From TrEMBL:
Its main location: membrane. It is a multi-pass membrane protein. The keyword Coiled coil does not apply. Keywords: Membrane, Transmembrane, Transmembrane helix. The chain crosses the membrane at residues 7-35, 47-64. This is NfeD-like C-terminal domain-containing protein. InterPro entries: Membrane_assoc_protease (IPR052165), NA-bd_OB-fold (IPR012340), NfeD-like_C (IPR002810). Gene3D superfamilies: Nucleic acid-binding proteins (2.40.50.140). It is found in: Membrane. It comes from Anaeromyxobacter dehalogenans (strain 2CP-C). GO terms for cellular component: plasma membrane.
Length: 140
């Protein structure tokens, strides 16, 4: 097969992958066809082209399909920015600029006091920002 036919086949298979839901099969065969195109242009025989196409496509399919599917279907975690503005209850005293513990949605968190006042145990506070598992809180 001429090199340009491999390019057309590769592009066609990539388009098929884009317009069909799920699967992730045509993608690897499309890439396989595009890999064969330069080899065909360099003079690789027809049998060699088909063998290379088959080998590249199957190796890519076997090694990358699962990882790519996992990456594409991974759901993002709950956005921590949505916690900003929520009310927490302090589980212990939190000195000004220091850290303590707070409960938010029934889960204990580390809390850091914003501002110059010491926050007392049982006091209700608002979340100003979130850094990892640390809540920056201010008296409500």
């Amino acid at each position: 097969m001429d090199w340009w036919m491999w390019v057309l086949a590769g592009i066609g298979l990539l388009v098929v992958e884009l317009v069909t839901p799920g699967g992730l099969f045509a993608l690897f065969f499309g890439v396989g066809a595009l890999v064969v195109a330069p080899a065909a242009a360099a003079g690789l025989g027809r049998v060699g082209q088909w063998l290379l196409f088959t080998a590249v496509s199957l190796v890519l399919l076997a090694t990358l399909r699962r990882r790519l599917q996992d990456r594409l279907t991974r759901r993002p975690g709950a956005p921590v920015d949505s916690l900003v503005g929520e009310e927490v209850v302090l589980l212990g005293d939190v000195p000004a600029g220091g850290e303590g513990a707070a409960e938010l949605r029934g889960v204990p968190w580390r809390a850091r006091a914003v501002g110059g006042d010491t926050l007392r145990a049982g006091q209700r506070c608002r979340v100003e920002r979130v850094e990892g598992v640390l809540l920056w809180v201010r008296a409500a």
